[in-house]
Each structure stands twice: as C-alpha cells, then as structure tokens.
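Q: Got a minute? One more chain.
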Amino acid sequence: MYDISYFKATEHEEVIAFMNAHPFVLLCGVNKEGFPVATHVPVLSEVRNDKLFLLGHFMRKQEHTLSFEQHNKCLAVFSGPHSYVSASWYSQKNVASTWNYQAVHAKGHICWMDDQSLYQLLNKLTSHFEGNENSEASFKKMDEAYIQKNMKAIVGFEMEVIALEHVYKISQNRDKESYSNITAELKKGNEDQQFIAVEMEKRKDQLFGK
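A: Always. Here it is, folded:
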C-alpha cells in the first residue's frame, strides 16, 4: 500500500467511518503451502477498551476457513468507489494519467467464536444491515430451528486489529487548476466517478484555501 503523507485522511475517525461505510471486505491470508487465500465477507467493526475488532462468519470446510484455522494472521481490505483520471484534465502537459481511489488495510489475528457468540453475532449482523427491526427479514422473526440448522454450517470469527493503514489517493498532489478540472470532469461521469468528485470537493478548501 502507498505510504505517502499527502495521500492520507486528516483524522482517524474518518478512516473508521470509511470502514463502516464499506463493510464488505476482502479478507486475505495464506494456506498451509504458503499460497494466498482470500474471501469476501461483510464485517461489523467494534471498539472495545480502545481496541478495534472486526466480526463476521465463514462457511465451514472452505479453503479460506481451513487456512485461517491454521494461520490466524490476516488482512482485511476495505475499498470504495474508484476512478480513472485522464492526464488531459491536468493543466500540466506530458504527465501520466492515474487512478483515484480510497482503501483501508486492517491487519490482525482471527479467533473463533463459540455457538452462543455466533448466535449473538448473527443477530447483530442482521439488525445492522437490515436496519428495520420490524422487517420480515429481521432476526427475531426467523424460525429458531432454521437458525440452529444454518449455524451448523458456519463459524463466527473475531479479528483484533493490530495495524491499520490507509490511502486516500484523490489528486492531492495536483495544482488547484488541475484539481478543479478533475473534479468537474468526474462530476459528469458514472456513480463511482461522482463519488470521487464529492470526496475531492470536501478537501479542496483544506488543500488550497478558500
């Protein structure tokens, strides 16, 4: 991951907010042969005693699950919208095009939940993402036998985050004219491009003053 000072958020809380807004992570580790393994999974972020934890669950007997059981060190990648940035939008000439994006990497160790903790996690996950406790899809309206049957096929995990890195590469290294041109062009684009344009606008005054 890039580690360049000007491609950073200004506040730690902004990084946590980004993680909460993009909870479908790529979780990476290695198998017993040392080859990379990865899976995609939604997670909840929790802070307890000033420590950050990620919570989720896997299907049992999958390659990634077996790998994490053998090697509990892992990397969770949070990513959001991203966009190509054409050099034709720069005030300078003979400069390469690039890509704007935001990402957070959380490194840590996985530990496994017992059945009671898994049950509580499923309730939390459903309540959080469904957002309406009166929904027909709410946890409390699920058949208990159905829940218990499906719990046998999954295992809950908790990952304590021991290192948190991020990069917000959104043209902070460009001059004011280029920055404005890039923002204007991205506003004309698709949903991802418009998202990046909004993020750029949030930082314009901080970078260049009003």
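A: The chain has one domain: 12-85+97-173.
Q: Perfect, thanks.
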